[in-house]
């Protein structure tokens, strides 16, 4: 954010509650001293009004001598704290400024959420620049507007509050919340082995990344020979390459939501899509295409670049769910851009059968990918999500169910001990707790005998 121009600022100087008290006491002392011709009351009134005048001049000058810049983080995700930094610069050469406070208004572009980011500095020397920050946490994705900024100071006596408002605003995209994926989740996605894409397979083979050196084996290419190592060892040594898994995938997000009040499933689908894109975009060899079907159909191409990843996440952050999203149109628009050479991954809050029942022509759109085995449908509302995401809620077994479970073989008693226990239980009455403690029988055995 650039320095605040003088033409874009508004200034307000108001008395605080303490200032109103001082003004009342000063007026009372002045009128009382004039009525009773008391010099002490007039001196007291002069001191009070002098303090008010000094406070007004100092706080006003302090607010005018400060310029402020705002700096956003590179990425901001819902449910994850991020830091907004504010840079204060004192343009005065003589006056030091104390107790500066900045209030930055935050409002959702949709207009359903408002908040304030607060930060400040304690002392700012002449021609000094300091940076403070404010830790923010957004629970929902979307586009948020920051500004205007209110710079305030009440130094030195807190009698006047001088505020300087800047009309400059900036927008920040808060990306969907990220989920924790399971280990080896990449194996569930179709990929291109050997680091080769469709275009690379047509033009020629690609070895991959250099991994190390090894001995010569029959069938190795001569161009892989490492001549320096061969001359030093006296035996042929070849370079070994590590083959990478290349993903060439089109992710289609189905923003289906029948009830706007309960959108947990569609938000989960959007978060899973953002998680996949974040992880897959970390490799520059991957090619990713994002298609969204909500109130509007849209798509964006993003590879392993930071700019492409940001475009896709921004599209997900502004995706609006709809009761009848047009998946067929989203697929057709995407295939016109990149064709059908990529794998298709559909992430939806409903099953494929429900979507095809609503639109009968949808199954024919998936046929080309189904024939080649490059199609996958993930229903986040079912149990299939557990194959990809680590659940935050660990299901603990019920104590009654845990007591009814069978003991492991390592903890079971030998046959001789079990036979002796059965004879002891048969000789002692079931209702006698003393006999039960002497027999050392498991609690589940006593429960079964009482039930019988």
Would you kindly provide a written description of the structure presented here, covering whatever features stand out?
The protein is an alpha+beta fold and 452 residues long. Helices cover 34% and strands 27% of the residues. The strands form 4 sheets. Strands 1, 4, 5, 7, 8 and 9 form a 6-stranded antiparallel sheet that branches. Strands 14-13-12-15-16 form a 5-stranded mixed sheet, with helices on both faces. A hairpin with a 5-residue loop joins strand 4 (97-108) and strand 5 (114-124). The relative contact order is 0.09. Mean pLDDT is 79; it is low at 1-7, 191-206, 392-414, 416-421 and 423-452.
- Average pLDDT, rounded to a whole number, is 79
Which percent range describes the beta-strand content? 25-35%
Order of helices and strands: EHHEEEEEEEEHEHEEHEEHHEHHEHHHH
Number of helices: 13
Distance between the ends: 79 Å
Principal-axes shape call: elongated
Number of strands: 16
The CATH architecture classification of the largest domain is Sandwich
Q: Estimate the helix proportion, in percent.
A: 25-40%
Poorly predicted runs are 1-7, 191-206, 392-414, 416-421, 423-452
Task: Give the CATH class of the largest domain.
Answer: Mainly Beta
Tell me the domain tally.
Answer: 4
- Tell me the CATH topology of the largest domain: Immunoglobulin-like
Q: Specify the biggest β-sheet.
A: 6 strands, antiparallel
CATH homologous superfamily name of the largest domain?
A: Immunoglobulins
Structural class: alpha+beta
Radius of gyration: 36 Å
